[in-house]
Amino acid sequence: MYHIKIFSVGKTKEQWLTDAVNEYEKRLCSTVKFECIWAKHDEQLKALSAKEKHLVLLDPNGKLMTSEQFSEFLVDQLECGGSKLTLIIGGSDGIPKELKGKGPQLSLSPLTFTHQMTRLILIEQIYRALEIEKGSNYHRA
């Protein structure tokens, strides 16, 4: 079983977003144990991240990937991290400079999303990536 933590600034306020995130977490529960941890500000995000061993940083300046590339990247990162991975969603100014260089940087899109939407998109992409790895039809449905 994989263990994925997602750190970000601010909690999800919209119920429909919480419901959507919960749906993907439910779909993944046989494969992935999720922990979503909300920081109030960048300083708290840095403190939480300091305890983690294997980080991937989500930042607007990070590398863009196709879903297939992300699938390969995610599986590689999970294997390198002993099935554990922490993904960090940067604040409104991106990843704090103190965290840059602590792990690969990834961008979900050149578009700007709210932190709440980013969490949902990220979890859906994790689900899609693992479905691609399994060879299911989800990616092409």
UniProtKB/TrEMBL annotation:
<comment type="similarity">
    <text>Belongs to the RNA methyltransferase RlmH family.</text>
</comment>
<keyword id="KW-0698">rRNA processing</keyword>
<feature type="binding site">
    <location>
        <begin position="108"/>
        <end position="113"/>
    </location>
    <ligand>
        <name>S-adenosyl-L-methionine</name>
    </ligand>
</feature>
<feature type="binding site">
    <location>
        <position position="90"/>
    </location>
    <ligand>
        <name>S-adenosyl-L-methionine</name>
    </ligand>
</feature>
<protein>
    <recommendedName>
        <fullName>Ribosomal RNA large subunit methyltransferase H</fullName>
        <ecNumber>2.1.1.177</ecNumber>
    </recommendedName>
</protein>
<dbReference type="Pfam" id="PF02590">
    <property type="entry name" value="SPOUT_MTase"/>
</dbReference>
<dbReference type="InterPro" id="IPR029026">
    <property type="entry name" value="tRNA_m1G_MTases_N"/>
</dbReference>
<dbReference type="GO" id="GO:0070038">
    <property type="term" value="F:rRNA (pseudouridine-N3-)-methyltransferase activity"/>
</dbReference>
<dbReference type="GO" id="GO:0005737">
    <property type="term" value="C:cytoplasm"/>
</dbReference>
<keyword id="KW-0489">Methyltransferase</keyword>
<comment type="subunit">
    <text>Homodimer.</text>
</comment>
<keyword id="KW-0963">Cytoplasm</keyword>
<comment type="function">
    <text>Specifically methylates the pseudouridine at position 1915 (m3Psi1915) in 23S rRNA.</text>
</comment>
<dbReference type="InterPro" id="IPR029028">
    <property type="entry name" value="Alpha/beta_knot_MTases"/>
</dbReference>
<keyword id="KW-0808">Transferase</keyword>
<dbReference type="InterPro" id="IPR003742">
    <property type="entry name" value="RlmH-like"/>
</dbReference>
<keyword id="KW-0949">S-adenosyl-L-methionine</keyword>
<feature type="binding site">
    <location>
        <position position="58"/>
    </location>
    <ligand>
        <name>S-adenosyl-L-methionine</name>
    </ligand>
</feature>
